[in-house]
Amino acid sequence: MGPDPLCLPPTNDKPGILIDFIIVGGGITGLACALALRRTGHRVIVLEKLVEEEISILGDGGSRLPPNASKILFQWGLEAAIREFAVSSSGVEVMRYDTGELLGTHPWEEEILREVGGEYLFYHHADLWLLLLRAAKDAGADLRLGVSVTSIDEDDCSVKLSGGDVLRANVVVAAVGPLSGLRTALSSNDNYLYDSTPAYCRLHSLLVPSHVMLQDYLLSQLYVRPSPSTFLWLGHRASALGSRVGGVDAFMVHIWVSDYSRPTSDEWIAEADKADWEDLINHCEPRLQRLVQGANFRAFGPVQFVPKLNYWVHRSGRVAVVGEAAHPLPAGSMQLTALGIEDAAVFAKLFSHLTSEDQISTFLRAFQDLREARCARVLESEQRSLISRMMPDSLEQEERDNIMRERHSRGLGVLGSGGGKLAEQWDEVKELFGYNAEDEADDWWVNWGLLRERAKQRSIGLEEPMHIGLKAVNINNDDEV
To answer: The whole model's pTM is what?
Structure first.
């Protein structure tokens, strides 16, 4: 027997008409879209080429979810379920990558988190995926795993499956990965984006079991804390991030390196050969070395600064791309999963106002208009943050570190006001935390959508007397004859 159905709160946002959606891609973004659309009543089919066991293996690493996304899932009624496997971070400890020297600490400001309504969470990626899978299914979505889509016909608003079957809907949503060929179905000119973008660095993703952490004196100091912390290492062309994750009771680590002797792959590789990991730990502090050696999950891949797609909506006005397919972020970014969840919230909120199929293309284009600037800001922030964390040894790097040392010696948070560029970047991140996806969609509807509908109704109202007048003229002309 499976788990009890999730009791999700109802939403009052019910559209005037219900339509059919096909979502291609059953990752976090695709499932979040399915759940959000089902909450408003629309009919949804999700097509995912992998089966549950394959996705669980691929999602075996750790992830993080900032407050702007966790609050959405909380509002959808998933807070209790998320707390069963996610760890809420209380602050950050900043250290040198090469020596482990503590540069300072910074607690997350409780007032900001209360105002935002979410928390900064760390979790096992597969746990969040399984929760959204269950929630979307319980909400009534038709989930079809192990089904491969070979093509999308944008003009017919249909998808073709590997077995030859064709499925049609009112709207097709491509929630696929950034390397999927279906991502560029809307514009062949965007095919070059990944191929022509060099790797900025390489990301290593690790998961260290709890028993390894507890049996090692140095590692246990990272793992056993009254309040779980996030650990950030800054180094010469290298950086690392670590935190405890719940559910599987483990410690996740992300390590970014740009100087490595062995060639990198264009794709993600799990369980690479031992030489790759030995090469990784040559220049890092002892605790990072032990984390790498004790990991039971290791994967690495390229980090690229890839431009967004120019067109998220096909000219037919019935097919759109969302998530990483539309606006890819560098691997390991804090907002990577969050943007997909925000997409789902905005997308469903727009379609909760649907009263006519004529509005479909308007809502899809409004989705891109609403999300494009937000995603561009996040991308710029993530790029600046990564470059700053991996700053080469220099006078600028020394100044940055000395500011943190000085603030820490006075008992001040290293990311507080006056803390230099790192603090300025933190101020920018806090602004990003405050974004409310559903409010953005509601504001668009009040300020633009309703006005558009009223203008349309007025136009129809003016046309009706005109038709009546023309009919009367015709009748009079007939009488004269």
So the answer is: 0.89
